[in-house]
Each structure stands twice: as C-alpha cells, then as structure tokens.
Known about the structure:
With 511 residues, the protein is α/β, with parallel strands linked by helices. It folds into two domains: 46-197 and 238-314, Rossmann fold (3-Layer(aba) Sandwich); 341-506, Rossmann fold. The protein has helices at 2-28, 102-111, 139-154, 171-182, 200-204, 208-219, 232-237, 239-242, 248-251, 267-280, 296-314, 344-348, 366-377, 397-407, 421-427, 465-478, 493-506; strands at residues 46-54, 59-66, 81-85, 118-122, 164-169, 189-193, 255-261, 286-290, 341-342, 355-361, 385-391, 412-418, 434-438, 453-459, 482-487. An eight-stranded mixed beta sheet has the order 1-2-4-3-5-6-7-8, sandwiched between helices. A seven-stranded mixed beta sheet has the order 9-11-10-12-13-14-15, sandwiched between helices. Strand 3, helix 2 (102-111) and strand 4 (118-122) form a beta-alpha-beta unit. Helix 2 crosses helix 11 (296-314). The protein is globular and about 80 Å long. Mean pLDDT is 92; it is low at 1-32.
Amino acid sequence: MLRKWLFTMKSNLIFFICTALITTCACNGKKGRDLPPVDPVPFERYNADLSFTSKILGTVIKYDILLPEGYEAGGDKRYPVVYCFHGYGDNNNSWNGTYMHCEAKIKSLEAEGLEPMIYVFPNGFKTYWCDRYDGTFSYMTMFAEEFVPMIDKTYNTVADRGHRALIGYSMGGFGAMATAMKHPELFSMSAPLSMSFRTDAQYMTESQNGWNEQWGKIFGGWGESGEGRLTEYYKSLCPLHQFTAENKDKYSSVHWFLTCGDNEEQLLIANDDLHVMMRDNGYSHEYRVWDGGHSTSYWRGALEEVLPWFSSLMAGNTAWQKTLKEVDLSEECRLNSEGVYESGAYVNAGRKEGTAIYLFHEGLADDILTDAMSILQRGMDNKKIVIFPCDTRRKSASEWVSYFKDLYPAGSSQAIAVGGAGQTVFKCKELFSALYFDNAFLGNDISADKERFYYIGQSDDGPEYESSNALYKSCKKTGSEFEYRCRNQLDDSRLDLLTGFEYIKMNYHNL
Length: 511
C-alpha cells in the first residue's frame, strides 16, 4: 500500500509540473491568453508634505518639491536647485497654495524657454529662517548642515553653490538674504521679494506686542523698547547693518536681486534705504520697484524676471539686460514747426482746453528727442493734450511755461523732467499739477506736497538714486499721491532713456 501511495503521489507531481510548463509556454506563445495591461505609476512633478527628521532640531520638517518635466530618479541628468522660503504664518504648501500657484507660473515660464530646475519649498515655521538668539531652535543651522545635504543626496541636483539659489517673500525674503549672507559657501544668488525688515527707527517704534511676537523672540530684546531692541545678534543678521563698505568682500560673492512694491506701507522704506546703502558702498545688485503691495500677485509677477535671472547666472552669464517693457515707437511722430505735438482732440477743442505737458531736458539729441515725443504722443490723439519740448539750457522751467502758455492755452499743466533738468523743475513745482521724474537730479531740498501727483522713475544703476529715495520718502511722509518705479539699467543709454519714457507714458495722471 505504501509503495502504491508513493507511486500515485509521484505521478501527480509529474503531472502538475508538466501542466505548469505547458501553461507557461502557452502564455508566452501567440495562442496564449493576454494578461490585462498594468497602468504605469504616473510621474508627479509636484510632491507635497514630504518629511525630513532633523537631529539638530529634534523634529520633523515638512517640505514640498517641484521636479522638472521628465525627471528620472537616479538618472544621469542633474538640475540646479531653487529654495523657496515662505512668509510669516505660512508653510511649505503656501508657494503653491490658493493664491500663489507657483507651479502654473513656473510651467508657463518653461513653455517660454526657462531652463528646468528643481524647486524646494521647506516649512520655516515663524523663525525668520534664522537661529533663535538663545539657541533653543537653530533653524538656519539645520537648514545648512542637514536639509541642503539631504536634498542633494535624495535628488538629482547639481550640488554646488553656483547652481543653488534662494528666493523668499516677506519673512522668507529676510531668510533668503540672511541665509545667503551667512552661507555664501552654499548659495551664489539670492532674491528677497518684499523683504520683511525695518529700519532701526521703525523697529524702535514698533508696537510692543508686534515686536515681542514677531522679532523679539527670534533676535532678542523681548520686552525691550527703543534702542534696547537693537541687539548685537539682530545687527549680525540685518542687511542695513551688514552691507557696509568694510563687508564688501564678504558679501559680494553672492548675486543679489531685491524687489518691493511701491504701495507697501513700511517695507519699501527699508528696502529702498538698503538699495541706497548698497549703491553707496559699491555692491552690485539688481533692484526693482513696481506697482503693487504686499501681495501674491506682486510676487508671482516678480518670478517672471527673477527665475530667468537665476537660470542665466547658473548658465555662467554675468550681465542681465532683460526689460519687462519694450520701447514702442510710433511709425509717425506728428510735430509742428516748433517741435510741439498737438493732439486731434486739442485742436478740435479750439487749442484752449486740456492739459499742457512740458518735457524738460538738458540738450537731448534731436533724434532721441523725436523718439521721446513719439512715445509720449502714441495713442493720445483722442486726449486733449499738447506736448512741448523744453531744453533747460536755453530757458528755465518757469520761462518755458511763460513762453508756451499764451501760444497754446490749456486748463492744466504737467511736467516731465529727465537728468539735470529735474532740479529747475522741482524749484517751480507749484506750476504743475503732476510731475514725472526719471533718473532726475532734484537738488538737496526735496519736499513733496499733497497738492500734486509725483512719478518717481529710475534705473537701478542710474546716477540719481538718492534723489529718488528722498522724494519717495517725502511722498510717504506727507501722504502725497505718487507712483514709484525702478527698472533694470540697460547698457544702451538711448534705449534705457526711452524705456523710462515708456514707464512715464504708462503713468499719465488725470489726462
């Protein structure tokens, strides 16, 4: 019986083995049954709420990451990295949240030719991206010693300072600047957007609760008022205390890009003062002031220039000549024998209604003056305006007004002044309802008033940055209506000047 049972088991085993082999062959052959297709795991460019455990902080740090299209983990292709810092009260999701939508903005820029980069969005809590003064929460140390190495180890990065950038908005702007200042060995470029910081005078008058909760607990000076708030630790991180002439070698290895909206309540004062300080002490940097406040729309707009700037530097370029406003010259510049432009609406009104616009300059070449008049008149034929070219080397501003006002009567007068013509115009500002200055020297006695509108324009490397700063702060102090713009300085002086006229044209007041 035992032998019979063993024989039966052996026969069954052979049968099952043969059946399996036949089935396998059939499945691999043409007559085999097709297996259902397996869907590939989709590649996700944006990954949210990833986790990293910090030994230095003893806690979990969450981060989001946006990978390049076609990114292959472990592949040979490696990418630069942009670290994106959020503002106070936000978190790692905020850059791609309800309002910012940075993923969509980055993809649209990539469609226009932006090179692929890896974007990392860490959670910075409410730290200002710095170590606390008392050593209880050393965020910046963690970021430099643990987080950046972790990203380089985990992802296909180009792991050197020349391919690492920092960008941040509000509190994150302070972090982007302070981190690059303290760790230039890791980062070669930094772009603070609407950087949240104050002048010493502003910090000393900040409300007690505001100071304690937002700054005192980070930089020291909790409960202090006045100069007691200006701790040595705070000064070691504040750019207004650091971008001195003595520190130029220390910080000049980093490329800086500062931008802030002209509708900011306090921040533009500090940011503009920093621009002046960096200019005075010879720090090369990009500086922009556009229309806007402390808003995601302003920061999204800034990405249109900042991200290509990052990419250009990472590619080894040093010059940056991009402008967001192209010069648009009219095919026909309609001027009379005196070089004056009269709109059709002004002529039809009997040459005695509307607005007289005086263009004051110091000897602009005829072809450049014609181009400027072309820009200022473009699309204005339905407005009752007349534009006069006025060379202040021949007559003062008030003499030009006296000369033209009877020949071309108008209901109101406005003035445009470029370069050195600004000073003579400012001295008789009461003659005009609106004044537009571009790269203009205004003299030393700069005081705005609420009776008129001011346009303040400059290029970031232009010569009259101190005049622009002084007029802006005077407008803020007096509550005067104004617009402030700072654009990229172009190497082509003619193109730079005409770009300034384009921005003036965009900001005509009450025509």
